[in-house]
């Protein structure tokens, strides 16, 4: 039996157990190795953040709106993007997740990473919009953070961590200038995504920008090199349900689907950056009927970043 099938089977069985943080931590630490923040992982996230910010600053430059309110979907274990947004001028940052995975240790580790690069004058090379006084504040906060909780420490940076379903955030309408997600949308079922984007529409200020980085390949190919990144396209929906599970859910949506969801929520797609796989890998599989209505170009995309604007072109 292929390794990915064994992994999917184990994940499926464990996902039936009552959900708690300890189980989720065990799974990520021992099966996905994602809890420890390596320097490589930290820099990868910061560079991805730079690409999001490049889109925002380049597309709103005519408004000179350098102070902005940002909303991140999918906080995860380490709040790297929210801290980066603070450093680069955001006056308020909301970051939301259905599960509270943050600890004071993880938040302090993120701050320490940023301080380390700032002290070596290397942070500005990766994030050229970093404001020096904000970087200095990070260092001061880190020294006096012994009595603070993770949420309290983040609030000192005007970062508000929300544990909730993103379909109903409770935030003020027309209050968000910039929406971001990083490798998050692909884990969300389409019907729920539609609800989340409806909430984004309610929250968006006129001309608000979105930048979403999405992996559109089969995630099991990362751990099982016997299959191609297009593996999940072999299976009709009824069959894929046998392998899919709540811990490692993959919605299998294509870039055109995400663009449709953007448009239907009132966001005009203005940029799309695709990384494609090889035609030879795609031709190794027999594509299920569920995917035959997509163009070959749509099927070949392994990773995409979609940038959109709310309310016309938003720049006039």
Report on the architecture of this protein.
This protein has 316 residues and is an alpha/beta fold. It has one domain (37-216, 253-310): Vaccinia Virus protein VP39 (Rossmann fold, 3-Layer(aba) Sandwich). The protein has helices spanning 3-15, 21-32, 39-59, 80-87, 104-119, 123-126, 132-143, 150-155, 190-203, 237-243, 255-264, 279-282, 296-300, and strands spanning 69-73, 92-97, 159-163, 176-182, 204-215, 267-276, 301-310. The protein has a 7-stranded mixed β-sheet, with helices on both faces. α3 crosses α4 and α5 (104-119) packs across α7. The radius of gyration is 20 Å and the shape is globular.
Q: How many β-strands, per DSSP?
A: 7
Question: Per the principal axes of the C-alpha atoms, what is the gross shape?
Answer: globular
- Largest sheet: spatial strand order: 3-2-1-4-5-7-6
Helical content (DSSP H or I, runs of 4+): 40-55%
What percent strand?
15-25%
Radius of gyration computed on alpha carbons:
20 Å
Unreliable stretches covering 5 or more consecutive residues: 29-33
């Amino acid at each position: 039996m292929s390794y990915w099938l064994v992994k999917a089977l184990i994940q499926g069985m464990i996902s039936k157990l009552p959900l708690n943080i300890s189980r989720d931590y065990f799974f990520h630490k021992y099966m996905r190795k994602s809890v420890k923040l390596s320097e490589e992982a930290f820099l990868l996230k910061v560079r991805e953040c730079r690409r999001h910010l490049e889109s925002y600053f380049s597309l709103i430059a005519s408004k000179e709106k350098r102070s902005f309110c940002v909303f991140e979907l999918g906080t995860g274990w380490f709040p790297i993007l929210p801290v980066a947004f603070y450093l680069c001028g955001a006056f308020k940052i909301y970051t939301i997740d259905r599960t509270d995975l943050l600890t004071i240790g993880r938040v302090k580790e993120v701050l320490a990473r940023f301080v380390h690069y700032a002290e070596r004058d290397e942070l500005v090379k990766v994030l050229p919009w970093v404001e020096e006084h904000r970087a200095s504040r990070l260092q001061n906060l880190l020294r006096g953070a012994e009595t603070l909780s993770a949420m309290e420490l983040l609030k000192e940076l005007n970062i508000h961590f929300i544990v909730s379903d993103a379909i109903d955030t409770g935030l003020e309408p027309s209050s968000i200038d910039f929406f971001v997600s990083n490798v998050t949308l692909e884990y969300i079922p389409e019907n729920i995504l539609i609800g989340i984007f409806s909430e984004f529409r309610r929250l968006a200020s006129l001309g608000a920008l979105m930048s979403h980085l999405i992996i559109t390949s089969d995630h099991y190919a990362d751990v099982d090199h016997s299959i191609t990144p297009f593996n999940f396209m072999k299976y009709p929906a009824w069959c894929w349900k046998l392998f899919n599970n709540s811990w490692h859910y993959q919605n299998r949506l294509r870039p055109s689907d995400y663009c449709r969801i953007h448009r239907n929520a009132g966001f005009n797609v203005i940029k799309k950056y695709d990384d494609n796989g090889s035609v030879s890998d795609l031709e190794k599989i027999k594509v299920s009927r569920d995917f035959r209505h997509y163009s070959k170009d749509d099927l070949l995309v392994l990773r995409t970043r979609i940038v959109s604007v709310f309310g016309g072109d938003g720049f006039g």
